[in-house]
Design a protein that fits this description.
Elements: E1 14-15, H1 16-23, H2 27-36, E2 42-43, E3 49-51, H3 53-67, H4 72-101
Antiparallel strand pairs: 1-3, 2-3
């Protein structure tokens, strides 16, 4: 039997050591960010952290903002606002697609009464 797996940016794949290496951060920093809620990795049955590609990208963003001198509280606020913006943009795109796909133009010329 051949099983097919579908992996996307949300699929938890990386143990903490690999996620730390991919993000350029120390594993202890990843644990701290998890406790703070800056990143929320998945968990295995044994409660080990598993990070998705989205988590790794988020960690890279946190590292870059931190390197620019932004505090962790500021970084948290920026991440929340970016998520809100992303959701709003997706909603706008969904509305545009819905409006375009349901558009029906009917033209009926009116007869002139002489």
């Amino acid at each position: 039997m051949v099983s097919s797996y579908h992996f996307d940016d949300e699929t938890p794949l990386y143990v903490i050591s690999i996620a730390a290496q991919l993000s350029g951060l120390h594993p202890q920093t990843l644990r701290q960010y998890d406790r703070m809620g800056l990143v929320t990795p998945g968990r295995t049955g044994g409660q080990n952290r598993l990070y998705s590609q989205r988590d790794v990208n988020r960690l890279r963003t946190v590292a870059a903002l931190s390197a620019e001198g932004i505090t962790l509280a500021g970084i948290e606020r920026i991440l929340v606002l970016e998520e809100l913006l992303e959701r709003a943009m997706k909603e706008i795109e969904d509305l545009r697609e819905r409006n375009m796909s349901n558009a029906l133009v009917v033209w009926r010329p009116q007869r002139r009464h002489n």
